[in-house]
Amino acid sequence: MTNMKLLRSCRSRSGTTLAETMVYAVMGVIISCVVYTFLTSTTQLYAKNVSIVHSHTNMRSVLDRTLNNMQKANSLPVLIDTTGAVVATPPSAGVYYDAYRGAPYVITNPSGNGLPAGTSSVTLTSSTVALASPPAPVAGDAIIISNPGGDVRVQISACVAGSFDAVNNRQPYTVTLSTALASAISWTAAETRTATLVHSEAFLVVPVSTYSELRYFANFEPIPNAAGLANPANYSVVSNQLSVLAGEITPFSIATVGTDKIVKASFFARCTDYSTYLTKHQAFEFNTFVRVNTSLSSRLRPTQ
Questions:
Q1: What pLDDT digit, counting tens, does each position of 89-121 carry?
Q2: How far is 76 from 257, CA to CA, in rounded Å?
Q3: What average pLDDT does the segment 216-224 reach?
Q4: Which residues form the domain of 135?
Q5: Are strands 194-207 and 185-186 parallel, antiparallel or unpaired?
Q6: Collapsing DSSP states into helix, strand and coil, what is residue 180?
Q7: Quick one: 212 and 70 in the same domain?
Q8: Are 225 and 167 in contact (CB under 8 A)?
Q9: CA–CA distances in Å: residue 86 to residues 89, 156, 251
Q10: I want to staple 152 with a disulfide (CB 3.0 to 4.6 A). Which of 145, 221, 242, 303 is the partner?
């Protein structure tokens, strides 16, 4: 009898009342809410900071790439739209330009009077000395021939290297021109006429879906057709974080500063890694958008 009373007494002391259970439950809910709020805030802060870092890093890549290429341009870039057509009035979706590849190349004067109209091939000779060694021309390059009446630009369709002159460290190249010279380029046997090697390149902003891509075309002569512009084999993507909003898919323009002309760009980007998660926060609390306005000075920008 005594053992039964002790057992019932132990059971009653080891249990909890309904009031106690409710208190524990409320405490558990409060702790869970605190932990959830902390985790949510931490996750939002992580997503925000990572997005901002990615946006800044991406824009730095865009600026480094475009500025580096513009400084290699041998002339003022030309504004183009998404089809590659020249745009008369800025702003535009892209630019194309002649990238400087090398110089000088001495042009052989076969007749002693220069190159007659209709010339379809030219012999160029370059130095192979380490400090003055321009690259070998390749198909797709173009040469700009110095001429008092106005420089002449012609594209190369083929190039054959001649016999190397080891005594004078000179390498001749016979280049075939895509189109024959329309008019004669005259100079005497006592003069030296040189050429500069260039190659046409382009940057183009193309809307894809919820973002735009800044594409770099290493070969932009002749200007690709619609299929060529859309073919990933013809371009590399510099950024896939640019905006698709109206007015932000045409970042390029040309500003006149005094008698000079300078290419300007206004890039607007946002990291899309956490765009769905941060949608309402982007609208009301903070944003991960980055806008950069910059000037892209070319290597030899002409003045008027």
A1: 889 999 999 999 999 999 999 888 999 999 999
A2: 14
A3: 92
A4: 98-199
A5: unpaired
A6: coil
A7: yes
A8: no
A9: 9, 23, 15
A10: 145
